[in-house]
């Protein structure tokens, strides 16, 4: 995606909606053990070119089944579990990378989902996101905020007014915005260092 350039070199599937090449850019270089949250019907799965193994979660069983059907066509070993991002069914330090595409608009608690992602990423692990966010323009931002209560009811809890980049930063993540086009942001983020328990005082 070219910065703030709706008509850049990236192919587009529809006005305002990035074409599938953004999916390739998001996941094709990720290596090792990878987790994708909110995998939906598996639209990203064909684009993992270098991952060693992929785990994915999706809260809706019917969508998870669709993703499993896509996964079955791939050489990549994929495990798809039915779970929400706020309660990941994996031990601490399980993954080298995590992926979220168009999911943080819909999760019930972005903060809880980020805490879970920080928990399951290994030291040095990275989160890779494409999300739509509240427009920076004040008027548009207010408009998106105004329609969100109705929109979220008809669009599976999708919020048009989430400030996801700021939410990451507020949670202590180190964020690099890779690209930004209209309301779509692609970023890489490193989780905050885990808080060490205070040494118990010995007398
Ligand atoms: C717009 S779809 C995007 C699907 C897929 N990531 C993609 O890029 O095509 C939003 C996805 O987020 C999932 N989702 C909603 N709430 C979630 C939650 N709490 N935890 C994980 N995924 C969630 C939805 O079920 C849906 O699959």
Overview of this structure, please?
The protein has 203 residues and is an alpha/beta fold. It has a single domain, classed as Vaccinia Virus protein VP39 (Rossmann fold), CATH 3.40.50. The chain contains 5 helices and 9 strands. The protein has a 7-stranded mixed β-sheet with strand order 5-4-3-6-7-9-8, with helices on both faces. The chain has a two-stranded antiparallel ribbon with strand order 1-2. Strand 8 and strand 9 form a beta hairpin. It is globular, with a radius of gyration of 17 Å. It binds S-adenosylmethionine. S-adenosylmethionine binds next to loops.
CATH architecture: 3-Layer(aba) Sandwich
In which order are the strands of the major sheet placed? 5-4-3-6-7-9-8
What is the overall number of helices? 5
CATH class: Alpha Beta
Structural class, by secondary structure, is alpha/beta
How would you sum up the global shape?
A: globular
Structure ligands: S-adenosylmethionine
- CATH fold node name: Rossmann fold
Q: How many discrete structural domains?
A: 1
Query: What percent strand?
Result: 25-35%
Low-confidence stretches: 1-18
For CATH, the homologous superfamily is named as Vaccinia Virus protein VP39
Spell out the helices and strands N to C: EEHEEHEEHEHHEE
What proportion of the residues is helical, as a percent range? 25-40%
Overall pLDDT score: 90
Rg calc: 17 Å
Distance separating the two termini: 59 Å
């Amino acid at each position: 995606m070219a910065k703030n350039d709706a008509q850049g070199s990236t192919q587009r599937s529809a006005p305002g909606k990035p074409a599938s090449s953004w999916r390739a850019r998001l996941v094709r270089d990720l290596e090792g053990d990878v987790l994708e949250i909110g995998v939906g019907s598996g639209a990203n799965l064909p684009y993992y070119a270098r991952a060693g193994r992929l785990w994915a979660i999706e809260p809706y069983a019917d969508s998870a089944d669709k993703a499993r059907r896509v996964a079955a066509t791939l050489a990549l070993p994929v495990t798809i579990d039915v779970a929400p991002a706020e309660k990941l069914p994996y031990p601490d330090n399980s993954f080298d990378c995590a992926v979220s595409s168009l999911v943080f608009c819909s999760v019930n608690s972005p903060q809880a989902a980020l805490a879970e992602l920080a928990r399951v990423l290994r030291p040095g692990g990275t989160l890779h996101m494409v999300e739509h966010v509240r427009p920076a323009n004040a008027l548009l931002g207010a408009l998106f905020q105004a329609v969100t209560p109705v929109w979220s009811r008809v669009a599976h809890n999708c919020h048009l007014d989430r400030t996801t980049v700021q939410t990451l930063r507020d949670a202590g993540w180190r964020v690099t915005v890779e690209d930004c086009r209209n309301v779509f942001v692609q970023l890489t983020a490193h989780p905050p260092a885990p808080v060490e328990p205070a040494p118990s005082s010995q007398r």
